[in-house]
Write a structure and sequence with these properties.
This protein is mainly α. The chain has 17 helices and no strands. The chain has helices at 3-13, 16-34, 40-47, 55-83, 85-107, 111-121, 127-136, 141-152, 157-172, 176-195, 209-217, 220-251, 255-283, 285-303, 309-338, 344-373, 377-414.
């Protein structure tokens, strides 16, 4: 079939732009839900609503949804390959409403019950593994970096939570942020079920889930992208869930001020994610990834010295936000360009899990280290060293794996029509 024929088929089935927009909104709304507990962690410690909490208690509270959302992506990504994003988006959105209402009406005065609610709230974090294969199938290879990057900007849903959760909790009642989010998810689930369509020509795999997971895990690009994303997106998640606690403890900010500054970090990372995808389409994902990790090496090293927040500290954190956002976009631009489209969902699930796990560990390490040293410096130096090792991996093994496919696509795109 000719390229124009494919375009006609896609237009009949649905607009790629509309599908991208709806998927991005769904990702943002679910990530809003996924991050509801994070801004409240420092507030719970301050007001004693859950009893006396240590720094490690707060770190565990905000990290539990991250770990569940991360591991859940492995299965959800494989299911998306099988049944399609048109089914999975509304299902995940609707199921997430249950733990949100549980937290609102049952768990807000109990640390143990809030951990249970946070565990199931992690389901919202699996939407990433739904959206990447869904969006990827709607766009040709030379546009997938930008398209997947635009979808990835939906991670800005965490900024919505950062900007609104504490204010709604204090101003309109403790249940308000949860009830609003549940209502928005319900509306989105209905719209997604009615409007979303899978891309024409999508073929569902016939092999078993276990066999597909095993096959995808053996691909070299899978474990390499897992390492890249564990640092890029994992660093973003770690900062987005732990930054309020860090700024309150280390710089003495109020919970609201700390949440606002975390929102600024998130906004920069969100803006840079599609830019990272676009730059990957233009210059290739390897240079974008390498530049991002180099910035993180420097930024984390500077932050470890506890600089003045209003000057050097702000530049260091915003620089890392930009680098982590662009690196996250570039990682999935790389996957979209070198992976068989029928396997993108499964690979995305595994890589997305690694990214979430990368965000789970640092808050626990930071809380543990601070509890024993009264300093966050060691944790930040560890981030700098990890980024340096990832930079080396990018410039050596990852470049060698990706180069043949990227060169072939470049030659194909340069051939006359």
């Amino acid at each position: 079939m000719t390229p124009s024929g494919r375009s006609t088929d896609r237009t009949k089935a649905g607009s790629p732009g509309l599908m991208l927009a709806l998927a991005t909104v769904g990702f943002a709304v679910n990530f809003w839900a996924w991050a509801l507990i994070s801004p409240l962690g420092p507030l719970f410690r301050q007001n004693g609503a859950l009893g006396t909490l240590t720094e490690s208690d707060v770190a565990l509270l905000v990290a539990v949804p991250v770990i569940v959302g991360s591991l859940g992506r492995i299965v959800v990504g494989a299911l998306t390959d099988k049944v399609g994003g048109r089914v999975m988006f509304p299902i995940v959105s609707a199921v997430t409403i249950v733990p949100i209402l549980f937290i609102a009406f049952v768990a807000l005065d109990s640390y143990a019950l809030l951990l249970v609610g946070g565990f199931f709230l992690g389901i919202a974090g699996t939407t990433f593994a739904v959206g990447v294969p869904f969006v990827n199938a709607w766009f040709p290879p030379e546009r997938r970096g930008l398209a997947v990057g635009v979808f990835g900007a939906g991670m800005g849903g965490t900024a919505i939570s950062a900007l609104t959760t504490v204010k709604l909790y204090d101003g309109l009642g403790s249940r308000t942020p949860f009830l609003i989010t549940a209502g928005v998810l319900a509306v989105y689930a209905v719209v997604a079920w009615s409007v979303l369509r899978d891309a024409p020509g999508r073929t569902a795999p016939t092999t078993s889930l276990v066999k597909r997971l095993s096959s995808n895990a053996r691909l070299p690009i899978t474990w390499q992208a897992c390492a890249l994303y564990a640092v890029a997106f994992g660093g973003y998640v770690a900062f987005s869930v732990y930054l309020p606690a860090y700024l309150k403890t280390d710089y003495g900010l109020t919970p609201a001020d700390a949440a606002n500054r975390m929102a600024g970090f998130v906004v920069v990372a969100v803006i840079m994610r599609p830019i990272g995808g676009w730059l990957s389409d233009k210059f290739g994902p390897i240079p974008v990834l390498a530049a991002g990790y180099a910035v993180v090496v420097a930024g984390a090293g500077v932050a470890a010295t506890h600089p003045l927040l209003e000057h050097i500290g702000t530049i260091a954190f915003l620089g890392m936000a930009a680098a982590l956002g662009s690196g996250s976009g570039a990682t999935f631009a790389l996957i979209a360009k070198v992976t068989d489209p029928a396997r993108v969902g499964g690979v995305t699930g595994l890589v997305g899990a690694a990214g979430g796990l990368g965000g789970f560990v640092p808050p626990l390490v930071m809380g543990y280290v601070y509890g024993r040293t009264d300093s966050y410096a060691i944790g930040l130096w560890l981030l700098s060293a990890t980024a340096a090792l990832t930079l080396l991996l990018t410039l050596t093994i990852v470049r060698k794996t990706a180069q043949p496919t990227l060169q072939e696509q470049r030659q194909t795109s340069e051939e006359p029509a």
